[in-house]
Amino acid sequence: MARLTIAEQIAYLTKGMTEVIRLEELEERLIRAEQTGRPLRVKVGFDPTAPDLHLGHTVLLRKMKHFQDLGHTVIFLIGDMTGLIGDPTGRNVTRPPMTREEILANAETYKAQVFKILDPQRTEIRFNSDWLAPLRLEDIIRLCSRYTVARLLERDDFAKRYRENIPIAVHELLYPLAQAYDSVALACDVELGGTDQKFNLLVGREIQRDYGQPPQIVGTVPLLEGLDGVEKMSKSKGNYVGITEPPEEMFKKLMSISDELMYRYYELLTDMSLAEIEALRRRIALGELHPKQAKMELAGRIVADFHSAADAERAAREWERVVSAGEVPADIETVRLDGGSLRIDKVLARVGLAPSVTEAGRKLKEGAVEIDGTRVTGFIELRTPGEYVIRLGRRWRRVLT
Question: How far is 360 from 354, CA to CA, in rounded Å?
Answer without folding.
Answer: 5
